[in-house]
Design goal:
Layout lengths: L3 H7 L1 E5 L4 H13 L5 E6 L7 H10 L2 H4 L5 H8 L2 E4 L13 H5 L5 E4 L10 H22 L2 E5 L9 E4 L22 H18 L10 H18 L4 H14 L6 E6 L1 E3 L17 H8 L4 E2 L9 E3 H16 L6 E4 L9 H19 L14 E2 L2 H32 L4 H27 L1 H6 L1 E4 L2 H8 L3 H6 L9 H17 L7
Helix pairs in contact: 1-12, 2-5, 2-12, 7-10, 8-9, 9-10, 11-19, 14-15
């Protein structure tokens, strides 16, 4: 048995992405449950006239996960010992100044790299800067410091899949349409060079240098370039494509000891810092909001699991792997997922959420009760059927809006009352059309995860790792996805968490 507490006490750790959803929970879990850790550094870049220290104060210390642990004196003192470093993983040397790097030598034994761009289809140069260049720079930093590297990736680097995805799949040379170990058609270094040249060509063709503001047309061209290249090799989007390239950069390094942790879809907390904590419109949040708003028609593969994992289990898994890596006992790859032991399938899930919508409507609809005449239950459509349905709805709304606008103009010309009421009706029709467009775009965006593929991620390595810890460490760093009550989790953690922390975010309507 190894001791996570002793490992964290004796070693210095550098954390990137501490201001992100997952990073805050990792920081809170480490400070709250292992407050005697040796030294913890947090790498942040300045932004919007805020210094890294000011960002740490505003974005991290003031966040609910950190606030939730500050009642404990030891945790509060531990947070006070965190040292903020000014840097940027997107820059060579991670943006550290000449004085800082030598000062860190011998002080950092492990880098936990959580920073990354999680947008599905961003301009590919942005995705490269974060998920490819950033990995190169963090790897170089680990070399310079003599530190080990724990890299947080995603299970979905597997790309297209139907069934069990194993942790033993080789990383180097992988692409989703690989035809076996003798297929040498993909090399990450060659692919990275190729894409960097295409990015340079796109900028040159637009007459934009790297420091100038990028016009919208160039951003769209770069988004299309990333999406097309990912699809060519079989990845589901630009995000998973660039995350796989980042993994292969690390796997090609033979002078740094490393481990890769791959979470599934990271969602609301199960227990820590408190049930339901979620931030920033996580991947499932738009689907949850559509479901609890009454969406009945879904493009889903009913027998496909929704591979989600609560954020606190992810943070726990990362710290478990960190302890093993510090002791030289880590495997190369760890999936953090649920469907191999406790799946929740899309069919039962969307029906459960629809029942919750109807229940809430019955409770809250004293003045307006649409559930009385709306059909009950969920209807499953193919993507083509859903697209056609959306087009028909838009056509009906467009015809109604033309009729209303025509009638409004006639009333206005005749000087008759009712023009303002028709103007309001026209605005509501436009709003309805916008909601339909957003709904259909969201369903298309999530189509690879809900319809085209069926993902089940093997998670044997993390179970083995957890069993290697002592009893007290296992209590402090739980790994128990088999015990999740999915109905309770989705209704009380995910739905309520999205309602409280996502729908009510400042600026969100």
């Amino acid at each position: 048995m190894l001791s996570a507490r002793e490992s964290f006490r004796r070693h210095g750790i550098l954390l990137t992405g501490a201001n992100g959803f997952l990073g805050k929970v990792i920081l809170a879990l480490l400070a709250g449950r292992f407050p005697d850790f040796g030294q913890l550094y947090v790498l942040l870049r300045p932004k919007r006239r805020l210094s890294p220290e000011e960002r740490f104060e505003k974005e991290v210390l003031a966040s609910p996960p950190i606030q939730a642990i500050l009642d404990d004196k030891a945790a509060r003192q531990a947070i006070g010992r965190v040292r903020v470093l000014a840097g940027d993983v997107g820059q060579p040397g991670c943006g550290l100044d000449e004085e800082t790097l030598p000062a860190l030598a011998g002080q950092v034994d492990l880098i936990i790299h959580c920073a990354g761009l999680v947008d599905f289809y961003p301009p590919v140069d942005e995705s490269f800067q974060s998920n490819v260049d950033g990995v190169e720079h963090v790897l170089d930093l680990a070399r310079a410091l003599g530190a080990k590297l724990l890299h947080v990736s995603t299970c979905f680097v597997c790309g297209e899949a139907d069934g069990l995805v194993e942790e033993s799949e080789p990383i180097l040379g992988f692409y989703p349409r690989r035809k076996g170990p003798n297929d040498l058609g993909f090399r990450h270094d060659r692919e990275i060079r190729y894409m960097r040249e295409r990015i340079r060509e796109a900028y040159a063709a637009a007459g934009v240098n790297g420091s100038a503001r990028r016009p919208r047309e160039l951003a769209q061209r770069l988004s299309d370039l990333g999406a097309q290249r990912a699809a060519q090799w079989g990845w589901t989007n630009t995000y998973t494509y660039t995350k796989s390239l980042g993994e292969q950069i690390i796997a090609g390094a033979d002078d740094v000891e490393w481990a890769i942790v791959r979470p599934a879809i990271v969602e609301a907390a199960l227990e820590f810092p408190f049930p339901g904590w979620v931030e920033g419109g996580r991947t499932a949040a738009p689907l949850v909001m559509m479901a609890v708003a009454g969406l009945r028609h879904w493009s889903i593969r009913e027998d496909a699991p929704m591979e989600v994992i609560p954020v606190d289990l992810v943070a726990s898994g990362i710290l478990i792997v960190a302890a093993l890596l510090l002791n030289g006992r880590a495997e190369r790859v760890y999936h953090l997922s649920t469907a191999d032991v406790n799946p929740i399938y899309f069919g039962p899930l969307v029906r459960m959420l629809h029942r919750e919508y109807r229940r809430q409507a019955a409770v809250n609809g004293a003045r307006f009760r649409p559930w009385r005449w709306l059909p009950a239950g969920v209807r499953v459509l193919s993507p083509e059927q859903a697209s056609a349905r959306g087009r028909r709805q838009q056509q009906v709304l467009n015809r109604l809006q033309s009729l209303v606008n025509g009638l409004r103009k006639k009333l206005q010309a005749a000087g008759l009352p009712g023009e303002q009421a028709l103007r309001n009706l026209s605005a509501r029709l436009r709003s309805a059309g916008l909601r339909i467009m957003i709904r259909d775009q969201a369903l298309e965006l999530y189509r690879p995860f809900m319809y085209d593929n069926r993902f089940i991620f093997e998670a044997e390595n993390i179970r083995t790792a957890w069993a290697m810890l002592g009893e007290e460490d296992r209590r402090l760093l739980p790994w128990n996805p088999e015990k999740i009550d999915w109905r309770r989790y989705w209704i009380h953690n995910e739905v309520e968490g999205v309602r409280r922390w996502v729908q009510n975010e400042p600026g969100r309507k």
